[in-house]
Amino acid sequence: MRDHQISRRTMLQLAGAAALPLAAGLPLQSARAAAGTLTIAYNVNLPSFDPTVGVSAVNPTIQSIYQAIFDPYIGQAADLSFKPGLLTKWGWNEDRTKVTMELRFDATWHDGSKVTPEDVVWSLTRAADPKGGNPIQFVWAKINNYKIDGQTITADVVEFEPVLFKWMAFLTGYLLPKAYYEKVGAEGFEKAPIGSGPYKVDAFERNAFLRLKAHPGYWGPKPAFETVVFKFVTDPTSRVAEIESGGSDITFEIPYEEFDRLKGKPTLAGLTQPISDIGMIFLTDIDPMLDRNVRLAANHAIDKKAIVEKLLRGYGVPIDTLEAPGYAAFDPSIKTAYDPELAKSLLAKSGYSTTKPVKFTIQTTRGFKPKDYEMVQAIAGMWRKVGIEANIEVYEIAQHFELRARHALAPAAFYNWGNAIGDPTTSTGFAMFGPSPHSAWKGKDLIERIGPLWGEKDEAKRIAGWKAVDKYIAEEGEVIPLLQYVQPIIHKKGLKVVAQANGMILPQLVTQG
Questions:
Q1: Where does the Solute-binding protein family domain start and stop, copy by copy (predicted)?
Q2: pLDDT, position 21
Q3: Contact between 505 and 277 (Cβ < 8 Å)
Q4: For 331-357, what is the mean pLDDT?
Q5: Are 509 and 498 in contact (CB under 8 A)?
Q6: Contact criterion met (CB below 8 Å) for 383 and 298
Q7: Rounded-to-integer distance, Cα 450 and Cα 437, Å
Q8: Least packed by Cβ within 10 Å: which of 150, 170, 172, 480?
Q9: Which ranges constitute the DSSP H helices of 350-483?
Q10: Closest CA relative to residue 285, chosen from 452, 479, 451, 471
Q11: pLDDT band for position 436 (50/70/90)?
């Protein structure tokens, strides 16, 4: 149980990061008219520029912006396979007591200074600091005692973390500039952030837009567009209007009926593909979800296939665990059947019926993902037919993060969960392990089952262990997985957009022609 005890002790509660506005610069209309400008109607606001601290750091939807400005240690291809980023080589020694990383020699920060091994050591040490505010500090704390030899960095393994290098391509896995950050401090960095990515910050108006300019010293391929503007358009109807009016060149996460309509227009094109994001309903271990019959009834009463086919126009893949097809621990044998009669009988055992329903609140976003609110409305209707009366409460995605961190979500809460590295630790693990600040279910049963898996060195045994946990969760109904998303992207004809399996819209990969 040593791994379990260390994991519990090192779990860090999420900390908010307050961002101060940059100078707004030119009006957005002027930026839009500039030659070589790509404008993206984006579905969330940017709360903070530091990609390693606070709740925004673990919001998968913001990572497209972060990856335009900052470089992850390790890159990912469109199919989620790993590739060199700032690190050109990485790995363990034979007994997995040391790690070795090699930094590329040709990377520069946006101020023109060179990216150094000292930046790597400082960034990783800062991420591991329990007082630093990194939401996954417990991952980065697994290595220390760094040594530098030329461009090579070595470190000792404090506790084996099987997905350490995967995290270097995922949330908070970004390199920051040591000398600049220490000079300006956290507040100064928010006012004028710099990274080593393909674009540098030019202007920012909170809740309105972010304008970026190409970084001339970027080590990778030169972006096709000199200027990129992210317009923050959180309402899906407004994003449709943006692309249809020509105000933006690309948008995404719009209603599927609008996607089908827009992709047929002569000036527009569309593309879709299943991505690593899933739609799910957190269940919080408070009344009435402490009742196993209620949880299972809530699971069995949902017709996921009908939701995908009728509400999402076929754009989705029904799932029954938090592992989507393509994830390392996906097990297609785990099924939770749609069975409303079974749901009724389960509720009857606890004294509930359609005339005496169990009542609770379900929280949901509205317009954050296509048909999110409508999906929850449909689920509430299905529940009503078996003896569950759900009150729907709308909240913003930022509220979800804040409530989840305080373990204050409603008994049921709809959410979009991203897992760009496809590992079970970052799906079932963080969503269901009680000590995790990302978990709504704090039950001892899962703490005891998941704890030993964090440090399992035998990969086959580790994956088998996660599959067993997923099976147990399905049998107990401790979460409601719904579907793997298919992302709708609409763009102007004449643009080539590279769809990413992680759902990111990366402006540096958009080209003309």
A1: 82-428
A2: 40
A3: no
A4: 98
A5: yes
A6: yes
A7: 15
A8: 150
A9: 372-384, 397-405, 428-432, 444-450, 459-476
A10: 479
A11: confident
Residue type, 358: V
pLDDT at res. 23: 42
Place of tokens 């972060």: 66
Q: Are 338 and 304 in contact (CB under 8 A)?
A: yes
- How far apart CA 7 and CA 160 sit, in angstroms, is 11
Cis peptide before 266 (omega within 30 of 0): no
As given in the structure block, the two tokens for residue 30 are 């002027």
Strand 388-394 to strand 479-492: parallel, antiparallel, or no bridges (unpaired)?
Answer: unpaired
Residue 457: pLDDT band with limits 50, 70, 90? confident
Distance CA 67, CA 498 (A): 15
* Banded model confidence at residue 30, pLDDT cuts 50, 70, 90: very low
Q: Which domains does the chain have, with CATH numbers?
A: 71-178 (3.90.76.10), 186-273+490-512 (3.40.190.10), 275-486 (3.10.105.10)
Tell me what the pLDDT averaged over the chain comes to.
Answer: 91
User: Residues 442, 309: contact at Cβ < 8 Å?
Assistant: no
Instruction: List the structure tokens of 463.
Output: 């994956």
Closest to 438 measured CA to CA, from 478, 395, 403, 404: 404
Q: How many whole angstroms separate alpha carbon 307 and alpha carbon 278?
A: 14
Confidence check: pLDDT of 176 > 70:
yes
Count CB neighbours of 54 within 10 A. Answer: 22
Instruction: Answer for the pair 238, 463: CB distance below 8 angstroms, yes or no.
Output: no
Distance, CA of 299 to CA of 477 (rounded, Å): 7
| Nearest alpha-carbon partner for 485 in 497, 470, 503 | 503
- pLDDT above 90 covers a percentage of the chain that reads 83
Contact 277, 417 (CB under 8 A): yes
Asked if pLDDT for residue 142 goes beyond 60, the answer is yes
- Give the DSSP per-residue string, 24-50: --S-HHHHHHSTTEEEEEESS----S-
For the chain, give the percent of residues with pLDDT over 70.
93
Quick check: 8 pLDDT over 90?
Answer: no
Q: Which of 163, 129, 41 is nearest to 422 (CA)?
A: 163
